[in-house]
Amino acid sequence: MNEQKKSIGSATGEPADAEKPAKADSAKPDWADGLKQFYDSVVDEPLPDELSKLLAQLDDGDDA
Amino acid sequence: MSSNNKKRELPERTAEDKRAFKQELTEVVPHLRAFARGLCGRPDMADDLVQETMLKAWAAQDRFQPGTSMRAWTFVILRNAYLTDMRRNRFRGEYDEGVAERILTAPAGQEEPIHLSDLHRALLTLPPERREALLLVGAGGFSYDEAAEICGCAVGTIKSRVGRARATLASMIEDGDIPDRSTADPSAHRAILEELDEVAAGNGQAEPTR
Fold first, then answer.
1. Is residue B70 included in any domain, yes or no?
2. Domain for residue B95, yes or no?
3. What is the ipTM, given to two decimal places?
4. Which of B19, B63, B108, B201 has its CA 20 to 30 A from that of B55?
5. Per the CB < 8 Å rule, is A55 touching B116?
C-alpha cells in the first residue's frame, strides 16, 4: 500500500528527527538489499554432498 | 480425454514426468537452502530441513502441477516441515556460533555497511510469521500474491507482516540494537513458541497484532 515512502524526512509536519538525515530518504535502506544478498549468497553456495547424493538417489527406479 | 479419469487426482506420472520433476527440483534446491537458512539460524539444521523437503516433495510429486512454480510449491513443503519440526523440538533456532564469531556489531552511526550475519541475526529475532514473509518477499523475490499463497493467508496479511518486519529490522539496525543470540531468553522462547502454535494451527492465518 504505502510502499513509496521516499520522503520520510520531508516537511510534513512531523517533528524533525535530526539523528539520521542521510539514511531516511532513500526508498530502500541498505539492509533491504542485504536480505537479497543474504539469500543469493546461499543460493550461490555449492551444494553439500549429502544433498547431491540425495538428488542422485531420487533417480531410483528409472534408468538415468 | 486422457484415460485416467477414474482417479480424482492427477494422472500417474511417467518416467519422463519424473525426470522433468527431478530436474526442476534440482534447480530449486539452492533456493530451498536459502529459504531454510533464513528461517533457522543453523546451517546444518537448515540443510536437514531441505533434505526433508526434497523427500517429501519427491513423494508428493503427483500433486505437483507441471507448469506451476516449483519454487513456490516446495517452499510450502519446507515451511510446513519447519513449523512441524519447530513445534516438535521446541525452539532450537539458536544462532550458529561459528557464524556469530564473524559478526561485527553494527555501530550506531551508519556509514558502515550492514554485515550480513548481523542482518541474519536480526532476522532471526523476528516472529516466525513475519520472518518468513520478509524472506519470501524481501529476499526470495516473491510477489505479495505468491507469498500469500505459500503461507496460506490473505495478501493484506502478508503486506502487513512484511511491513512490520521491515520496521522492526529498520529500527534494530538503525539503532545498532541487534540483540546477540537473544533467542536464549526464556520469555522470548515462550512468545515465539506461542506464535508458532498459532501459525501452525491457523495454517498461517494470524491476526494482525494491534
1. yes
2. yes
3. 0.71
4. B201
5. no
